[in-house]
């Protein structure tokens, strides 16, 4: 069994922090560039007096007609996602657990909704999926000693009383395996 040094532990924690910060950067960039700019575009269109019908007739943004027909509402909703994503990203960057939870929820919701938001949903899915993998690996990938976390560990021996009670059943299973 390999013994890890304090230096190995620091490197593992540093790697975890780096993964979480890269994920936070992806979320902030996605919130500002993909969703925040959409809200600014909506403000510009409304200020210029451009009707939603004019935009939907000239720009095919979504594959689903319902979303295309309600484009201005979708653009406003994008602002909500932008705010939540940026807040979650900043909190994650600052190593806040609630920021991690908010960011996980944002990523999961985006991955579920991306199929309805084609073609723009593809880029959303790539960014949110990448951030989700980084968050999960940074949070759950290694233990405090820097060793990879496993789904299950080696089986613990049964207490003597349980082992004795289960012996006939285990022998019967063993016999069936060798016969079949």
UniProtKB/TrEMBL annotation:
<keyword id="KW-0472">Membrane</keyword>
<feature type="region of interest" description="Disordered">
    <location>
        <begin position="152"/>
        <end position="180"/>
    </location>
</feature>
<feature type="transmembrane region" description="Helical">
    <location>
        <begin position="122"/>
        <end position="140"/>
    </location>
</feature>
<feature type="transmembrane region" description="Helical">
    <location>
        <begin position="20"/>
        <end position="51"/>
    </location>
</feature>
<feature type="transmembrane region" description="Helical">
    <location>
        <begin position="71"/>
        <end position="90"/>
    </location>
</feature>
<protein>
    <recommendedName>
        <fullName>DUF2127 domain-containing protein</fullName>
    </recommendedName>
</protein>
<keyword id="KW-1133">Transmembrane helix</keyword>
<feature type="transmembrane region" description="Helical">
    <location>
        <begin position="97"/>
        <end position="116"/>
    </location>
</feature>
<keyword id="KW-0812">Transmembrane</keyword>
């Amino acid at each position: 069994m390999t013994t890890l040094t304090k230096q190995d532990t620091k490197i593992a924690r540093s790697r975890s922090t780096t993964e979480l910060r890269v994920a936070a950067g992806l979320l902030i960039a996605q919130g500002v560039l993909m969703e925040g700019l959409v809200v600014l575009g909506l403000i510009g269109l409304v200020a210029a007096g451009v009707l939603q019908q004019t935009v939907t007739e000239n720009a095919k943004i979504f594959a689903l007609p319902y979303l295309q027909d309600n484009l201005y509402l979708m653009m406003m909703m994008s602002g909500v996602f932008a705010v939540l994503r940026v807040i979650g990203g900043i909190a994650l960057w600052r190593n806040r657990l609630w920021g991690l939870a908010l960011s996980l929820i944002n990523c999961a919701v985006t991955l579920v909704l991306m199929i309805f938001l084609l073609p723009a949903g593809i880029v959303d899915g790539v960014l949110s999926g990448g951030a989700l993998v980084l968050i999960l690996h940074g949070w759950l990938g290694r233990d405090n000693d820097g060793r990879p976390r496993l789904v299950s560990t080696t089986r613990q021996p049964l207490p003597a009383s349980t082992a004795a009670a289960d012996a006939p059943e285990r022998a019967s299973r063993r016999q069936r395996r060798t016969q079949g």
